[in-house]
Amino acid sequence: MQCPKCHAAMHTYNRNGVQIEQCSGCRGIFLDYGELESLTRLESQWTQQAPPPVPPAPQGYPAPQAYPAPPAPAWGAPQQGQHGGHYGGHGGHGGHHKNKSFGRMLFSS
């Protein structure tokens, strides 16, 4: 099969029951309509899964305790949420983290 974009050879991969064609030249991913429906179905199943229950603490160990509240900030210290700088005080990388979606996990190598 040839890539519709750059005409290089295409390779077919089977990931979680979904056939994906990937171009060896431009690395593009191509799906047919049935495969796209399969991906959306798997994505909805992935997001509806409940997290596993927390196992009970082993006998003989105390139950986990919450950390104590942090002390009040000193006078003149920045308030919570004011980290200073233009980029949120996290090295200029935004400071937020998003869990990987099913699609991201499917297409990662």
TrEMBL record:
This is Zf-TFIIB domain-containing protein. Residues 2-40 form the Transcription factor zinc-finger domain. Residues 82-92 have a biased composition (Gly residues). Pfam families: Zn_ribbon_TFIIB. Residues 50-73 have a biased composition (Pro residues). Residues 45-109 are annotated as: Disordered.
